[in-house]
Design a protein that fits this description.
Distance between the termini of chain A: 64 Å
Largest interface: A-B, 58 and 58 residues
Number of domains of chain A: 3
Shape of chain A: elongated
Largest sheet of chain A: 6 strands, parallel
Radius of gyration of chain A: 26 Å
Oligomer: homodimer
Mean pLDDT of chain A: 97
Low-confidence stretches of chain A: none
Number of helices of chain A: 12
Helix content of chain A: 40-55%
CATH superfamily of the largest domain in chain A: Response regulator
DNA sequence: CTGTTAGCGCCTTCAT
DNA sequence: ATGAAGGCGCTAACAG
């Protein structure tokens, strides 16, 4: 069933059908006949054929490291919801942080002529090293969430992670905490930024930074607590770079008979729903993943409409519950 | 840059270029000239134009309820990885369990002529009520994960959730547990199935079922524990329908001075990485989300190749750690 | 093996 | 307002 079939059965030309499909004014009588035939066969014009002409199939891509990480899942979810409400289809690419893999994805997206790409996370800044890749996407509408690419049509939405941690740590200090330990997950540019927020806050108040590292999002918190106990670390607060780490810290410290929220404070980072999974409930830095993702999607829609857009930076906010 | 430009500059006809692109045998000399021009301009043939002819743009869709639920994220991730290795692009649709929304997504996918759809979860069986929808996808390659649609080209991968719970409960009983409580999340057909596995196991051994319900994946475990304590529930084991519920149960029961793994056993369901986030580590029923997802993707690839495929059912396995 | 030609399904001038 | 015709970029017969 194509536009010719519809035209023939309705007794009009294909261009009249095309006009009907594109809401251009045609005689009411013809409109009715066309409508009748279209409904009869449940006809839907082929987006592929339309795409060949119009250069747009209304497909957008989201590049993330791993959709299994709740933070990225939340981003992908919010973007999908926002864009699909406007008829866009969303392709999610899990790059695993691998450069070759990311580039392969981009090539694949170019091939189908995607309308735009949203990159989630500063990790994708590595693409600036690849001139050839940049050239391929030079005019493509691009939104970077916490990052930036050197192309003609790239726009950014930032979150001030560093200030988020800074403020949380300052909150602890003003509460009277003096021995604040930081738990860092991996060492991406974003996680380093958070850590530097911690260091600057301590420095301002003349306190000594103590940092523990882990590469394990699930058990890392426990491993870190074990190290702390083994080191007989004197501490009255723990600032974690991820909610999941804080979750394990709370659990591990509780098991070691620390009273969370009184003996010791624990703060997480992300403001995820995991903050409700700890006992007591977790205070956390909300880095506004939902807002920034929606904003990214809206910016892309604006760019696609030809509107001017401006880069923005969102502040984090501290969501205080019981753990600090 | 299109096939005409390449042909002209290489001094050959477009069909020779087309043949080169499709690995058909051409004179080495021409091949070299074409290759040179293609590399010079980084030319990539348009999948849209190819799609118009070949009826395939190598795009596949995955329908899930919500990518933010780790179980679905794991499925989407495994499918994306498997299919993108074969050059397919994967569109993920978050239906939120809404019927109208699901149908809207399907229409959108038909419009771009997707090569196939993978449905994750029994919830999508509701589509069997909509004849019109079924008709639209009657010949489309479809794989249902734990479900089935009444179309010409639908194939299924099942997991025996019920037996998974049955075996876990039997394991508890054989360990000597007598007062086993079940915690059910929501009441979808799949969650009901799990619960019935629990009931049948208890019945076999002449024990009395006690079931707690919750609709909250995060705090639900705590709420249930509170109810249990308020009811002075006599119990020596808790079987949970979800790992996250078990996580909160373990935490809540620990706080109430139960010794997990000795006073009381707790088992989760999913075999997710959250089993490493509890203290002690969680015993859980692994419902093989990764295997079944990969299998679904492979089945789809086989169907697309024209191979015959057969429905399969995976058994769950009990992964024993410390909580039971 | 190579080139010519006719579609794939739709949109878009351009006359009418 | 309507219809005829050309073109979007590619594949697939069909001749040569």
């Amino acid at each position: 069933m194509n536009i010719y079939d519809i035209a023939k059965e309705a007794g009009v030309s294909i261009s009249t059908v095309s006009k009907y499909l594109n809401n251009k004014s045609i005689r009411p009588e013809l409109k009715e006949r066309i409508e009748y035939v279209i409904n009869k066969y449940d006809y839907v014009p082929s987006a592929v054929a339309q795409g060949l002409v119009s250069k747009s199939m209304k497909i957008v891509a989201v590049m993330v490291v791993d959709i299994q990480i709740s933070h990225y899942a939340a981003a992908a979810y919010a973007i999908d919801k926002t864009l699909s409400a406007f008829g866009y289809r969303v392709i999610i690419c899990n790059t695993l942080g691998d450069e070759k893999n990311s580039i392969r994805y981009i090539d694949s997206l170019i091939k189908i002529n995607v309308d735009g790409i949203i990159f989630i996370g500063s990790i994708f800044n590595f693409l600036n090293k690849y001139e050839k890749v940049l050239k391929k996407i030079d005019d493509l509408p691009i939104i970077c969430n916490n990052g930036h690419l050197d192309t003609n049509n790239c726009h950014s939405v930032y979150v001030d992670d560093k200030m988020g941690v800074y403020n949380a740590v300052e909150y602890l200090i003003k509460k009277g905490r003096q021995k604040i330990v930081y738990v860092q997950y991996l060492s991406t540019s974003s996680s380093n930024l958070k850590c530097s927020g911690y260091k600057e806050a301590l420095e301002k108040y003349g306190l000594k930074p103590v940092i523990y590292h882990t590469d394990d999002l699930m058990e890392g918190g426990y491993q870190v607590v074990e190290s702390m106990l083994a080191n007989k670390e004197e501490m009255d607060a723990v600032m974690c770079g991820e909610d999941l780490l804080a979750l394990a810290c709370i659990s591990g410290l509780s098991a070691a008979n620390y009273k969370i929220g009184s003996d010791i404070d624990v703060i997480g980072f992300n403001g995820s729903s995991f903050t409700n999974l700890s006992n007591p409930r977790m205070t956390s830095v909300d880095n506004k993943i939902e807002e920034t993702s929606i904003k990214s999607a809206q910016m892309l829609l604006d760019v696609l409409k030809g509107k001017k857009v401006e880069d923005v930076t969102f502040p984090c906010s501290l969501i205080i519950k019981k753990s600090a």
